[in-house]
Design a protein that fits this description.
Blueprint: H1 12-62, E1 71-76, E2 82-91, E3 97-107, E4 111-121
Antiparallel strand pairs: 1-2, 2-3, 3-4
């Protein structure tokens, strides 16, 4: 009579198979977390670089017309990345318009660059 009853619980093989499946799933999730963290860091650097570039363009727009000259400088971001800004001022033939081209560069694991362009009138 005892032979006809089904055993209750899990066998050792079932538990091992479940652990293997769980381990593979956790490794996949860990890979996604690494990629997400890397992409978030790049997004933070991109945002910081764009903010520094826009700040310089706004500074140039509010400066006196005769004081507006090409140049370059360095900024250190809150993330510890150094950003290099280079701006070029080009005057139109009629001398009533100026084009500002600003390029900002930084390096984390790779070299990155953003270029902004605007035109202002006197």
């Amino acid at each position: 009579m005892n032979l006809l009853r089904k055993p209750k619980g899990f066998t050792l093989i079932e538990v091992l198979v479940a652990l293997v499946i769980l381990s593979i799933s956790l490794l996949a999730i860990a890979g996604f977390m690494f990629t997400t963290t890397k992409n978030n860091a790049f997004g933070a650097h991109m945002t910081e670089a764009t903010t520094f570039a826009q700040d310089k363009i706004e500074e140039l727009k509010t400066s006196a017309w005769e004081n507006m000259v090409s140049g370059s400088d360095q900024k250190r971001g809150s993330t510890g990345i150094n950003y290099s800004r280079n701006w070029t001022i080009t005057e139109s033939e009629t001398r009533d318009l100026r084009a500002i081209t600003l390029i900002i560069n930084w390096s984390d694991r790779f070299n990155h660059s953003i270029k902004l362009f605007t035109v202002i009138a006197q």
